[in-house]
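Folding Problem: From Residues to Backbone Shape
Fields: amino acid sequence; protein backbone structure tokens
RECORD BEGINS BELOW THIS LINE
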Amino acid sequence: MLKTGWPPALAESLNCPWFQVQKSSVFRRDGADIHSDLFISIAQAVLGGTARSPGLYETINILIPPGIQADQKIRMSGKGIPRVNSYGYGDHYIQVKIKVPKRLTDRQRALMLSYAEDETDVEGTVNGIASTNTGKRSTGN
């Protein structure tokens, strides 16, 4: 079926060319806007930084603000698909996904435990951190 909603047989009977676009494994389309995912590290999410993401026309350099949240969207204005019967281009929305490592080095684990000891807004518990009688948390060392 065409984007216009015409079935191929109708397009042929009107002597109109038609084509069907294959689905992308990278981009999702919403009218003139496109959406894609960007996977970043925990350090990039917390501290900010830069990343590169494929765009429709070129690779896009993205500035990651410190404290970005999982599933937060970054809007790249005018980096989408040309608008039909109008001027300009749609936008490219990049949805941030945070990669959580499955394995940590001993140093990374020690740093995460140290960070977890200072966290004050934890719902529930953190493995390796025990609450003390004073309400402070400790690794039990």
